[in-house]
Amino acid sequence: MAGPLSDEELAKIDAYWRAANYLSVGQIYLKDNPLLERPLTREDIKPRLLGHFGTTPGLNFIYVHLNRIIRNHRANMMYLIGPGHGAPGIIANTFLEGSYTELYPNIERNRDGMKRLFRQFSWPYGVPSHDAPEVPGSISEGGELGYSLLHAYGAVLDNPDLIVPCVVGDGEAETGALAASWHSNKFINPITDGAVLPILHLNGYKIANPTVLARIDPDELESLFKGYGYKPYVLEGDDPKDMHQRMAEVLDTLYAEIQRIQRHAREKNDPTRPRWPMLVLRTPKGWTGPKVVDGKPVEGTWRAHQVPLEEVRDNPEHLKILEAWLHSYRPRELFDANGTFREELADIAPKGRLRMGVNVHSNGGQLLVPLVLPGFRDYAIDPGVPGSKQVSATRVLGGYLRDVMRHNLATKNFRMFAPDENASNRLQDVYAVSGKSWDAKLEPTDENLSVDGRVMEVLSEHLCQGWLEGYLLTGRHGFFSCYEAFIHIIDSMFNQHAKWIKSAKELPWRKPIASLNYLLSSHVWRQDHNGFSHQDPGFIDHVANKKADTVRIYLPPDANTLLSVADHCLRSKNYVNLIIAGKQLAPVWLDMESAVRHCSEGIGAWDWAGNDDGDPDVVMACAGDVPTLETMAAVTLLRAWAPELKVRVVNVVDVFKLAPVHVHPHGLNEEDFNRLFTTDKPVVFAFHGYPTLVHKLTYNRANHANIHVHGFKEEGTTTTPFDMTVLNDMDRFTLALSAIQHSKAARHRRDDAEQRFSEVRQRHKLYVSEHGEDMPEVANWKWTAR
Amino acid sequence: MAGPLSDEELAKIDAYWRAANYLSVGQIYLKDNPLLERPLTREDIKPRLLGHFGTTPGLNFIYVHLNRIIRNHRANMMYLIGPGHGAPGIIANTFLEGSYTELYPNIERNRDGMKRLFRQFSWPYGVPSHDAPEVPGSISEGGELGYSLLHAYGAVLDNPDLIVPCVVGDGEAETGALAASWHSNKFINPITDGAVLPILHLNGYKIANPTVLARIDPDELESLFKGYGYKPYVLEGDDPKDMHQRMAEVLDTLYAEIQRIQRHAREKNDPTRPRWPMLVLRTPKGWTGPKVVDGKPVEGTWRAHQVPLEEVRDNPEHLKILEAWLHSYRPRELFDANGTFREELADIAPKGRLRMGVNVHSNGGQLLVPLVLPGFRDYAIDPGVPGSKQVSATRVLGGYLRDVMRHNLATKNFRMFAPDENASNRLQDVYAVSGKSWDAKLEPTDENLSVDGRVMEVLSEHLCQGWLEGYLLTGRHGFFSCYEAFIHIIDSMFNQHAKWIKSAKELPWRKPIASLNYLLSSHVWRQDHNGFSHQDPGFIDHVANKKADTVRIYLPPDANTLLSVADHCLRSKNYVNLIIAGKQLAPVWLDMESAVRHCSEGIGAWDWAGNDDGDPDVVMACAGDVPTLETMAAVTLLRAWAPELKVRVVNVVDVFKLAPVHVHPHGLNEEDFNRLFTTDKPVVFAFHGYPTLVHKLTYNRANHANIHVHGFKEEGTTTTPFDMTVLNDMDRFTLALSAIQHSKAARHRRDDAEQRFSEVRQRHKLYVSEHGEDMPEVANWKWTAR
Lengths: 786, 786
Fold this sequence. Notes:
2 copies of one chain form a homodimer.
Chain A: H1 7-29, H2 56-73, E1 76-77, E2 80-81, H3 87-97, H4 99-103, H5 111-120, H6 148-156, E3 162-169, H7 176-181, E4 195-202, H8 218-227, E5 231-236, H9 240-267, E6 277-282, E7 292-293, E8 296-297, H10 316-328, H11 331-334, H12 343-346, E9 390-392, H13 393-407, E10 414-418, E11 436-437, E12 449-450, E13 455-457, H14 461-473, E14 477-483, H15 491-505, E15 516-521, H16 539-544, E16 551-554, H17 559-571, E17 576-580, E18 585-587, H18 592-601, E19 603-605, E20 618-623, H19 625-641, E21 647-652, H20 670-677, E22 683-687, H21 692-698, E23 707-710, H22 721-727, H23 732-742, H24 750-771, H25 776-779
Parallel strand pairs in A: 1-3, 2-3, 3-4, 4-6, 5-6, 10-13, 10-14, 11-12, 14-15, 15-17, 16-17, 20-21, 20-22, 22-23
Antiparallel strand pairs in A: 7-8, 9-18, 19-21
Helix pairs in contact in A: 1-2, 1-3, 1-5, 1-9, 2-3, 2-9, 6-14, 13-17, 17-18, 19-23, 23-24
Family (chains A, B): Belongs to the XFP family.
GO molecular function, one term (chains A, B): aldehyde-lyase activity
Protein name (chains A, B): Probable phosphoketolase
């Protein structure tokens, strides 16, 4: 068949592809005899056969053809693959192009290296079967499916010359995240962003079932992608020669179309949303693999999804099929007697930095430019008398973030992300500097929408998280604000990102990337109006389970501490930073210098609030803005009710300060912990989240038995702010009572206090039922110095 | 304009709609003066204005028109709404049709009732603003967006006569779960399942932004839904009279089309996937609300999304607009002097059980038929010598589940759900009885796919979870199996379901529904081959945070205990049951009668495995199958190393047994706990998940300081099964060493043991590096009786 490839080109491309397939099969099956220099025996075969062959020949096919485009156009391409367990193909290709050996010099480009390459794959202390951090050129593991396309879109933001071909598996395409992520094309500026080239790889099967998109009518499939706003191209076939010509042809067309779109947009300064091209590539599952095994069809069926031959070690028939299969790639034509890839074939790969295995964006830390940060002290609120001024902490932060945006407009390496909640979380000041990204239709009433906008808003936590991950992994910075309860939607994406960071840190060639910064606002205590479904502080627990050297959790008690924490987080690398802070009006407790000191300690006694003189009867501890407020109010109640009681107020900003030092690097040593919390005095602890987290972190502290934690105990509804604390026994009255009950010095006031505080809580309940808002004595309460 | 409605019908429908809108606005704003019998004053207005008006007139519009269809055809319809905070509309309509008052008799259908109806809305101790359990006719809260369409599809499974019109908000449509859920139509059998009528309600805005689907070209939108496999109808407009005629017309068409599809399929016995109709309804945001406020356009813009007038209490101008707005619905024409809805208008609603507020499926517990369960003892494995037989626990369970399926085929009230993992989790025996649901194209090589299949498989945890929730909430039973790590994908959906159950339990009229049963297999310890991304046991922690009377967590140590636990869970109601069990070959420890006893206790000493004679030197505790295996192996090591050591083996099946009784109803009382774990002896605890969970549950037990927990500490990769335990210090050698180190009686062996066990771990490491599999002494280890 005629096509753009000369006979010689076609032959070389096919040979290159065969080499990649050979190396892929070798990785899955062989631990020895990599060049088949002797007949294959049981001893050459790995004891466990891992990796998915089904998707791999297709991934290899795309790789070699992208190489041709890169060569012909010196294109800047990073290759993302969604299909799970597809690493054999990427490892094979980066080995062939030489980038693998540059990063892992012990995997030489010869027989020994090939043997090691095969053996290490899915081998203990070797490399995983996914496109994990260990794999050159990867930013998207694909172990958990669904995020490849989001990573691709995140990567091309602000990278106008980058093209990211992204293979979406037809299994992965069924996931929620992936189904929504096709709409990312409405958030791409063709002038200033790069291009994603989605390649839907239809090979028909997932682990045990056909895929939905492979089994709908072709006209439905085409409609679907037109509906998503793409111009779909379709390529289907199984004859390699024919497919090489047609793939070369369609990739020429797709590349030209991307160039045409970008040229038009850039020359005419016309960012109107183009219909970006995408490719539907339909090839057989396990293409080039065994056609029939044990009388059952394999190639092109679900049986080829994982390992087409499973009993190679024990079934001589299978071993023979494997040998024939490997020989079908004609390794002698591909590798010389030393096992080195033949020069004339290696030569068709791109050279140097153009190789996809070392595309600079795929190791984004190399490109990381620190943010230019405004002095956060300039945004400080002067508290006057502590607690006398009410501000929205996140609104104050919004002013700071506006200027972070401003200072980094030139380098274009900072974006904010929110699921339709940026303004709701009070970060709207940024719009004075940059709008919200939008390349769909505009109406005259729209505000702050712009194709140049650097605030990414869409009603999907998945999209925000995925774009941000792609943006960070390619060496930029970001800030994600979200309602606290709904961040659970991306629990699993967070897991995968935290795991990526942990593994990447262990690889010397992976350079550190900017931290993933979460601001959770509209939090559990102030979702009183939105009701129970909006009340969930469990993300802290979720984060706390991850590797200690990867995660940080901050609960700044007021606006000034929030500023200090945010500045710190934006400077950090290779962490996930979780910040929780309210958006409603709330007291400012510390002046800026005290705030900075407090945040750099992470935990500390507020001597100005207590009266313990170094020897408290009770420690009133708190973490989080509402818990701090209730604790401070409890302290004033204690003054009235038990003036003789010596109270220490301890505030925790950095939650991991509570953990033992061997559990988390931020943990207080025993001495400091005991100095702060005493070894024998009652500690009444008001905590933002579920109380058990505090117990989990402090269970082996000397004074643990005396720590009484109050926090969210899953009681909520539509009610008032103060009632939320009452429902969960974290209100000032309960805290004060707890102090009185547990302190020897105040115990004589216990019965009185119990009766009185119970009356107040009753009165509160009647008042809110009657008036629909909090009692003035609670709503207008102000801290007074002693 | 001509149409199906006579002038009189049109007038009544419009009046009914105005009444619903009036009541909706009243709920949002008024706490008094419900009939506007005197001029509106500040005192009539609620202090906090909650609920979203933007979506509500559209929801009401659809409701009144669905009523007409129900009346005309005696249709069996349940109304699901996705848009957030849409409850005012549903409450208004159920009040008008009378179902609200039947369920809440204090909300009478007169002036007083209306006042209470208004006042209670979003009022402390009142009702939430979402379509929460409190709202009649609801099974889908919509507080967290994205699940309405899945609930709708789950509801119509096996309910051939049920039609579920489901309003999808255009904000919600951007979420991952919703974007994927349109494909649910490939899993519906037109003969035996009912019909979902999706209504995409395009009113253009979410909280602070336009919506994507409202801002793409109409031809893209149409393509998108054709691509999803629907036949889209579009209705757009804002003139009420015109819209009433056209809505009546299009609903007549849609209803006829559903009838035609079902009649064809049922008469011809032809389940070929039809192109189900769906409606795109484009109406202004805040339709019928204020057009302009403070000189800015409101109706039809994002300003109408929540509360179009925010300063009603403080801005007399706003108060006037509100009053005029309320009067625009002409309440005098709608309600008589007593505030009772006028008879001739009320009359157009359906009667009795046809009313959507009391559709029997929306309170599914009413329909719940207990499962017919086979005797689980019939599937017992005879263990012979404990631990001598290796079986796949989930495979054994699969036999039982096959017969659960078989016994309930006639009642069609049991389905299994899995994200492409049913067979991978070894539950494939069910296919002998029922295949996998599939109404897309079939190929000759397909196996076990059938349009009648009762196993729901799709590569989306969101879809599985959402369908199952819909199925359970409408009174049926289900079983969800999933890889342990990836269940986090639906963390947030689990949250919302657990919250639903908790709130529904507090409503006497909501009847209990079947529990949501999770089986997590392919768990952290046996994902050695799949690598780090597949290794995460954190879902236990996530579940443990929920309300104690709603959640249960089971870690059966072997096949027989798994059978017993599964039987128990399938009989239970109103819980979420989490079961974690391995699929790989593993020992059977208990004969069936011991298993039943052990499971009914939930925790217990295995006297046959220990030698403590009632007074142990050390307690070796374990929870989970792999931890049990390692503990048993550690016990045999101890026998050799410290024969004099008196060892007690405690196994935990029911994790909440560890919690204090005031924390969880299953918790052991102090006496029993102390009897089992002693008050002063070391406890070496091997736990399936993160070790901190055990500390969190036991921190205030007397012996807590002596409990040393080993579990997953976020160390993983592609390796061998035993190496996973070594990496995380939960291997038999580490457990045995910990016992020796902490027991006074064995302490003299400490140095020896340290050296020797460290050597073994080294040898292990070398062995797996060399051979790629576990040492035979580990892999072939068998328990031997003392």
